[in-house]
Each structure stands twice: as structure tokens, then as C-alpha cells.
Fold this sequence. Notes:
Blueprint: E1 2-4, E2 10-13, E3 22-26, E4 40-44, E5 56-61, E6 64-70, E7 76-82, E8 87-93, E9 103-109, E10 119-120, E11 122-124, E12 130-132, E13 134-137, E14 140-147, E15 158-162, E16 169-174, E17 181-187, E18 195-197, E19 202-208, E20 215-220, E21 225-228, E22 243-250, E23 256-263, H1 269-272, E24 275-280, E25 284-286, H2 289-292, E26 319-322, E27 327-329, H3 340-357, E28 361-371, H4 373-384, E29 391-395, H5 419-424, E30 438-443, H6 452-464, E31 469-474, H7 484-503
Helix pairs in contact: 3-4
Amino acid sequence: MCLTTTDRQCYYVLNSHLWYPRRVEAQDGGDANVEVSPRDIVYMEPAEPLNGEKPQVLLKLDLRYRKISWCYGLHALVYEYWHKTRRTRTWVISPDCKEFSPQLLFDRSSEDAYSSPGSPMMCRTRAGTLVIAKIKTSEGTYILMKGLGATPKGSVPFLDLLNITTRTKERIWESGKEKYYKSVLALMSYCPECEIQLNQLKLLISKESRSEATQYYLSIWPDKTEVQITSYPHPYPQLASLQKEIIRYNREDGVKLTATLYMPPGYNPSKDGPLPCLIWSYPGEFKSREAAGQVRHSPNKFARISNNFPLLWLARGFVILADPTMPIIGEGDQEANDRYIEQLIASAEAAVNEVVRRGVAHRDKIAVGGHSYGAFMTANLLAHAPHLFCCGIARSGAYNRTLTPFGFQKEVRTLWEATDTYIKMSPFILANKIKKPILLIHGEEDSKVTTAMQSSQFYDALKGHGAPCRLVILPFEGHRYTARESIMHVIWETDRWLQKYCASN
Length: 505
């Protein structure tokens, strides 16, 4: 739990671990525009301080404090981060040992998925708190680092043994690369002191493939024997043979883009011709072109159908382009959102051209959709690039950025600091330019900045200018929809919209 004072100058963190309640003070007064070193100071005090005993300085940070992870014993890991540069650093500290000076463990860009060292695996103490597990081997004590293992050919999850003193590491487990996607979920070995012998290690692992549903296994060391503990049937056998491919293509300015292409079972583009297509995405902001082009998905993961993901329309004869990267890049001192519209259109145009080039999508039957910031993207694309799409589906979006004046997503400037950017990014301002059909869906009780008022006002503006639009307000629903009635109604509304304005376009 985090308690923050109203002036944001000092905040207290109540650690679930009982050793060291701590206080973090921002030396910049909570204002990221102030240049100061150190920026944050982390203080430490005993759980039961004596009379007059003052907190001691634990660590001084030049970036913003994020969190601390405790080991059962001497060490802890402290994380700091700076949004503007995407720089993240991890420190090793030893509060119990005054002779031990803080050591820098990792210093990297948070955007660089290929170099990610992973995160430490945790175990529970007798008190029920989570601490970093220690692994004992004949050569010393280590911690376990699990990661997604992003590579240019797709994610390959891994598990490393890391010596936090020498910073040496050894890979002791890795997912397959050919057919199956495996991932370490939890540490199953129990030891009250959270100190586990490597040859007694037990891990909970998931295993899946493109056509096989996720099953769970117990991996037992030292032989790494896998014992299957679930046997779930395929949840939708009608789509068991759907086609899935991670595709790569380039934006006009040379930025590398990726997407996951899904096609119906038995579909052959050369014989069956192009199909209606639904593009479902969510833009992301980056500080470098290289990070924007990295592959963060695996071709071997099971295709899951959910109410927030459009794979259901494979059964209706659609091609689905899922999660095509829509990077908004601001290198150096550039602000990414100052070129938001320009880069958004370029990314969408590249995605459309790619599915048309492959012969899987009909250029006049391509719909676009998204949730939250993806809904915001959808409205902007219909306003600025109507030639690309026949219709749009926007769920739980915010369309007027003047109603979120103190920042949104990763935009840290206020409306008064970047007025032109806020105005240009607001599709509400361009409601008179939107002529393509758009379906707006929103939860009535959405408590985020994307309140239902955003959709209601956008609908009024669209309707007032004669745009073909429909507004659906879901009672008692928040930012995401959970009730069976709501989910089924969203599916019905979406299918009706796609059949009317896309499939039969």
C-alpha cells in the first residue's frame, strides 16, 4: 500500500515484510521538470524504533523510486525508473550490513525487450509475505530470474540462476522454440526460510501450442521431469485448425512493424480470394525505432478467444490482424505525441497494405477496432485516414483530450503546456470529418478517465454532423465488461455492425 501526501513531496510505503518500514522523499518536490541529484532518497528505520531514533538513509537515487523486493536475509533489490528516457536501474543493497555499499545490478532501457534480464521468483515466508527465493548450489547462493525471452523470432521464456554479488548467470531452463510455448509460472518448492536446494527445485509450468490448449505441469529437479497435472480439452474445437502467423513488415519511414495474422480453418488465399478483415490494435509509445520494431509475441501460443479479443470473428469468415504495432516514436528530446497522427496513419497504412499484398483481405472490407486507447486510435483513424477502413468499433475510449488536461497514457505534459497536441489528438474536435460508421461501446460505471461521458459527448457530436454511428451504454459495467449479459450483448452489437458495414460492404 502507498500513502501519498497531497503535495506529492513525500510518500510512505508500507512494506508487507516486517523488517524495514521505509520512507521515500522526493527531492524535486514531485516535479519531474526540476533538475536535482539525488531525486529520491529512501530511508530505513527499525520495525520498533527506540525513543529519539531517526530514520537512516538507505539509498539515494537519481531516477524515480519504483519499488523494493526483499530477500529472506541480507539483501534486497531496489528499482528506479525515469519515464522520459525509459531508463531503469536495479540496485542490490544489504540493510543489515553497513559495510556493504549499494551495487548496480542492471542499468538498461525498459523498452529493450531483447535485453530484459527477467524478474526474480518469489516464495512465501511463514508470515505469508512474499520474498525473493534463494537457491543453494554447491557453488554458492543464487536467485532465480524468469523472463519472457523476447527474440527476433518470437518469445522464448527462460529461467536463469543469478549471483547478485558477482552478477554471473547461468540459464537452467528454456522453452522450446519449434512447436510448444512453455512458461514458468510459480515456485512450488516450500521452505520456510525461502532457501531452496537446486536439486530439490519444483516449478509450475504452462505448456501450449497453436492448436493445443494450455496445460499445466510440475517440473521436478534434478532431472527436470515434467508431470502433467491438467488435461483440458480444446475449448472451441471448431477453430482448432485456425491458421496463425507472426508477420513482419515495414512502415514508410523504415520502422519495422509486427502483427499476428489469424485466418479461418481451411482458408486458402489463392483459391478462396480475399476475405473481410478486422484489425484490432493498441498504440504504444517508444523512445527509439529499434525498440519499436522488436518482436514481443510468440507464434506458438494458443489462440485464446475472449470478450476483449476479436478472434471470435474467425468463425464468421473474417481474417483477423491482431495487435499490429502502432508505435508512436519520440527520439531524443522529441515528444512522441507531437507526431501522433502522422505516425498512426503510417502504421495503419502499412498494416492495411500488408494484408492486401498477401491477398488475404479485400481493401474495401477492412474494419478497425480497439479498447480504451485502442478506441481512441480507432476514432482518430476514421477521422484522419477514412480511405483505409470501412467502419470502426471503439470500446471504452476517451475522445476529447481537453477533458484529461493533466496527462493521459504516457503524455506527461498538461493541456496548457501542449495545447496544440491535445487539440490535434482529439477526434472529438474532428467529429465533422468522420463519415465512416463507428460503433461506440462504454461501461456506465467506468471510473477511469475514460468515463462514459466521453462516448456520450462524442456520439452527440457525430450524430449532429450526420455520421452513421451507434452508442451502447452497458449498465453497471466499468472500464472492462464482465457480466455475461454485457459480454453477449457486445458480441451481438459488434457482429451486427461488422456484417452490415464490412462483410456486406
